[in-house]
Amino acid sequence: MTAVAESPRGISPGFLNELRAICGPDGVLAGAADMHVYDCDAYTIEKHRPDVVVLPTSTQQVSEVVRVCAREGVPFLGRGAGTGLAGGALPVGGGVIIALTRMKRILEVDLRNRRIVAEAGVVNLSLTRAVSADGYQYAPDPSSQMACTIGGNVANNSGGPHTLKYGVTVNHVLGVTLVLPDGEIVRIGGKEEDRIGYDLVGLVVGSEGTFGIVTEVVARLVRQPQTVRTMLGVFDSVESATNTVSGIIAAGIVPAALEMMDRLIIQAVEAAFHFGFPLDAGACLIIELDGLEAGIDEQVERVKAICAANAAREVRTAANSAERDALWKARKRAFGAAGRLAPSNITQDGVIPRTKLPQVLREIEQIVARHGLRVANVFHAGDGNLHPLILFDETDPEQLRGVVAASEEILRTCVAHGGSITGEHGIGLEKSHFVTCQFSEKDLETMGQIKGVFDPQGLCNRGKLFPSGHGCMEVTAKRRRSVAL
Amino acid sequence: MTAVAESPRGISPGFLNELRAICGPDGVLAGAADMHVYDCDAYTIEKHRPDVVVLPTSTQQVSEVVRVCAREGVPFLGRGAGTGLAGGALPVGGGVIIALTRMKRILEVDLRNRRIVAEAGVVNLSLTRAVSADGYQYAPDPSSQMACTIGGNVANNSGGPHTLKYGVTVNHVLGVTLVLPDGEIVRIGGKEEDRIGYDLVGLVVGSEGTFGIVTEVVARLVRQPQTVRTMLGVFDSVESATNTVSGIIAAGIVPAALEMMDRLIIQAVEAAFHFGFPLDAGACLIIELDGLEAGIDEQVERVKAICAANAAREVRTAANSAERDALWKARKRAFGAAGRLAPSNITQDGVIPRTKLPQVLREIEQIVARHGLRVANVFHAGDGNLHPLILFDETDPEQLRGVVAASEEILRTCVAHGGSITGEHGIGLEKSHFVTCQFSEKDLETMGQIKGVFDPQGLCNRGKLFPSGHGCMEVTAKRRRSVAL
Asked: Among A22, A99, A332, B68, whose CB has the most other CB atoms within 10 angstroms?
């Protein structure tokens, strides 16, 4: 297994007592077993044990905890549901995790102005559930939406299958309450549509928790579409499916979602959910259209014609919402189902121009095979946002080395094809050594200075986003040593 | 007329010669008559004369000019077409204007990946014209799009009538080349869809030229809609038109545009363009639907039914693209046409929650009337983005005082109703004293520090965005003195 980096920091009983006075006795965890629960998020390759976990119930409590940390020079970070795939919620070097899971109140629903105000620990899907009876929804829908929190979504500017049509978190979050790293509480943005001055909300969204702790979020609600049509296209090859994606977009159709699953994923998902996917298909496309009832069936026919023109074996249309839900359940839980394929897997998250999908997918397959491993692909094809899942066994040091090497080669391939190293999962800890391959020294210097504006002490979510060393490879080597190979 | 603030700075012959060596003899203007041309933009209430205007033809030249300015401590700023309505391109305290009008090359059109790369001085409409034969467009369309430049759009995060459906500049600009205030050239973002790390592109877009000079822009292209339907709804009152706007949105229809003109504007526009607007109407709505042919006529029928339910007097549909173009020409030139109503006018730019339109419009009318003036309204009703035009005579000091006072009261009213002080024109010089009414000291401190990251010398586009004093009223009084009343 992997080693746990030990905290170098002694946390004093007095410090713990102060935290208990703020959050209550049951709001502070410090026992070894409790700390083990928080030593990683959904990026399981590295573990970092916190010294303390606090569970505040209000912005005021978060502010007081941060103030104590700042005074004592103790690092801290916010954590939502811990579903992040890039290690953004790992307490590098120990310190205090501020878990926002108890801050899960929806503070206001304003349907007339289409706004919702929620605490950071509210689960993504709960936002939509709070307003769905009235015909509204919160649009961004990460696959982890049943667990992940709106605060975590803000940190990572999360996307999801419906990003293609509806955009990502930054397009739907209009304001945040932020506890700055000195404990001060500020409100940035608000309910109004337009941001004035420097776009601080846009800057905070996607800053991966490095500017402070977001405790409340003002988000946009949108009307549920009047109607939805969900299709499953079955293809003999990834190529045909990819050409179909290009064909649909070229026809001026903007599907709500355009998701691809390759053969390995289809097999895993079918084994888990018995949806009825054809096990011998080369690729499946989930194509969802939504909008007004008027004209949607004509669009369905056009999509079917494009599928047929690209040698689709068949196109099924979900007959009702139960069938649609079953299909989405299979897609959104594909990462979990992949657990059937190998003891461990790691999901990469690169972006490439959509037109390069077939070529890059071939290269990824070759890269992974070269390291003696297998790869399964499930991804947002409409966005060119790839999610290769590398299958491995983490008890085998050789395979673990191969995974790390293959992941890097995959990301380099994405950059070489004009893409980038993360589409929606963030940089976090996982890719912090990799940003030098995409950013210049000057970019990083500017970003570091902006970080310094918010967090001059550098205590907030240490070790994320920025490379800890200078050269790409050097840091990689350093990082590799922290994994027990 | 208004006084011109004199430059306190002596520009040496040596400095001028250096600029001439960089930009060529015809690329440097310093004569009094030339300077007069550049002493204001479309915000004509104040004038500030530059010391020098340079007309570079490349990013390299811009960089060299900036380097010389930085070395000499001379303030500088970028300027596009000078169509900005908030005085963002005024050289407060003199200095060097870097006019980007000669940098008007389209550098790359990449239709497969739907990207266009253009120099900052390219006129907004030229982007669309470069790709329209291939069925594409650059979506944001400010009313000044026949003149305004993409660089200016980036500075102000410009919107336009089609913002409602397509979003503003920041949703369509993916990368910029920025000359930093020390002369260094950096490229931020690029062609890829997703931004990683801190969203510096998002930060630069809308920063009103205070972080440096944007010289090149990478923008997204979108498909032209397959079909368009443009309607003109005629109403007896602004109230009925507003209720129609709410009704359309509530029905889940997302029009491409939803624009309102009130009676005074209708009369001015009709006098200028003879489109056939009914002169006795209380308000007209331009309602545009676009998308796929399939189903669009059903949507048109639904919109007509909603208009009828809100007592529309009639709903006309443009029969062809010539009629459509004539209607949009009338709308987009409404500000110009308003010149028929009074010797001078000033356009305000506030945002309010859409649901409060009728109430706020009534209050605006009362405010303006209290100062003995008239107001005409033309605005993006779907966004709640108001554009009251206050009509006055700038040779009458009493009226000028009334305009300034009424403008402030209008913006306060917007803020009081949960809105903000600018929707799309920016803060510029005009509203720089007003931001304290919307931002806290801490907000401004944070923004000031971010400004300092990019521009530690504080030379780049001085006097914009930030209040030069502390209290709202104090600065206002100071600013008022700079206008010869």
From this structure: A99
